[in-house]
Every structure is written in structure tokens, then in C-alpha cells.
Amino acid sequence: MLQYESSLDAMRDAVLFPIGQALHMVSFKAMKIVPAHYIISKARDRGDLQPGKTVVETSSGNFALGMAIVCNRLNHPFVAIGDPAIDPAFKRQLEMLGGRVEIVTDKKGSQGYQKARLDRLQEILAAEQGAFWCRQYDNENNGLAYANIARELLEIIGPRLILVAPVGSGGSSCGIAAALRAGGADCTLVGVDTFNSVLFGQIDGPRKLRGLGNTIMPGNLKHTLFDDVHWVSSELADHFTRKLYKATGHFRGPTTGAAFAVVRFVRNRYPDAPIVFLSPDDGSRYVDTTFASNDDSPAYDQLRPVEIGHPTAYDANTEWAWMKWDRSDIHRFQ
């Protein structure tokens, strides 16, 4: 059996599973524990976060959970600022770890919940002396936290691989790819986004698929690292999340399903290279959503992406689109 020095070491560990021929999945219990631990530990080392002081972040998902677990283990109070997307069970899960969860309900007009969450965060920083803001979207330690995972992939998979990664803050995708290339790997990076996300040049709008995509542009997202970009619908991601579970027994979340959907196309585009895809979290939060239905349409198994020449060149009914990003700067498409 595996033995760890602490529960944090165990929870932030990643497992590499074989899924098919030259296909592996990097599986996390909750991936954001990795950057949360690294960011908070570095802040403590620098003296930016004193013992017993509050840690705060705007998050309705996995970073909130990662921060909560780390703060619980390191004896820091925390505040997670979210929006109505946080379901009551997940809110209780966070609160049981000793912090508080604040839900903003004012969208601040066209600027959405994210602006309201950031405004509330600034109020907390002003009111609570010594409070530390993780800044997951812009803190370079988010990406640097994944350096060990990149080194392990290089040792196990070898110097040539395709990395298929869901993209939200840019931390895991860019952090792993940059570290792989710095270590001498020939790494092709394929980003997986969803429609109406601003990350790769689309216009902000309603998004059903949570856990990837964004309404703001993170500083940690380094566009020039990406070779290809895919946009997938929530329905397609859910279908392939269930398909992965039925085929392998891996009970994972829908961001994993989004990456798994893209893997089939990537295999045809890069037929000879080992493929690794990231699986950020398990399926426990999605029992009543992704796994609420077992009625899968065979049409999704035959679906192929529409190749587009510009991020906005798709119609409203598109389930899956992709483009050759060619390590371009985002300004090329703005």
C-alpha cells in the first residue's frame, strides 16, 4: 500500500492510469489542492501569510475545495466567494472544513458574477487585517505547482507526448506543458474549452459546462503554448464522462469527459504519439447532473469536430469545434 507523510501529501497526489493503447489519464481527487497548497505554502514561507490569518479566493468550484482542505490542515480560516452555481451540498462540504462561503447574487450588469465576487473580495481584504488572496488566475505559483507532475510524466511517458488539458485558470495546462518543454520534451498541447468562454477569443455568454472556461482572461493562461484548441458542449462532455465510466470504471467529472471526447480526434491527428489527458476531479459532485441520465445518444460517438479558422466562426448549434492554434498570441484573433 502507498504510505504518505501527511494527509495533504495523499490528497494532492496524482495517479497515472492506462486507458488504452498509448493513452493515459492523469487523475486527481481534486486537482486544485496542488496549486492551493503550493500558493499558500509559498505565502507562508515569504511571510505574506501569518499563522492563523485568513485565506480568501473567488471560486465556486475546485479551487475553493483545494483551498478549504489546505487551510483546514494548516489551521487557517478561509473565505470562498462564489455565486449561485455552488450547490447546497458543496457549500456544506466547504463550511465543514472550517471556513465560510459567501454567495454573491448581483451580476453587476453585463460584467457578471465574477466582477461582483472580486468586489466582495476587495471588501474582505480591506476589513480583515493580514488576509491573504491566493490570486489563482494571476499567481505564477499556480502553474509552477505542477512541475513535479511534469517531471514524472517525462520519466514515465518519455520525451514525446500529446497533453490534452481542460483549461480554466491556465495553471495546470500551461504549468505542465511549460515544465515538460523546459525538461526537453516534445510536448504538443491541446486545450479544451467550452463555448461562450473568453479564454481563446470567444465572446462571454452563458455556459452550462462548469470547471473549464472563464468570463475573465487569466494572467496564467499562456496562449503561445497551445498547438490546438477545442470547444465542446456540456452535452458532449456529459456523454463522454458517462462513456468513460461505463468503459473503464473511472467515475470522473465532466471536465474529464470533455478531454476524453477530444482524445479520439487527437489520436487521428497525431497517430503515433502517446497521449495524456488531465482528469481534474471525481464524479461525486455530479451525481445529480452529469450522471442523472443514462440515456446516451449513439450520435455523439460518431460526432466529429467542425474545424474553424477563427474562434467565433461557429453557429449556435455547434456541439464541438476546433482550430489549429499554432502557438499564437491571443491578439491575433482580437
TrEMBL record:
Its cofactor is pyridoxal 5'-phosphate. GO terms for biological process: alpha-amino acid metabolic process. Pfam families: PALP. Residues 30-281 form the Tryptophan synthase beta chain-like PALP domain. Keywords: Pyridoxal phosphate. InterPro entries: Cys_Synth/Cystath_Beta-Synth, TrpB-like_PALP, TrpB-like_PALP_sf. This is Pyridoxal-5'-phosphate-dependent protein subunit beta. Coiled coil: none annotated.
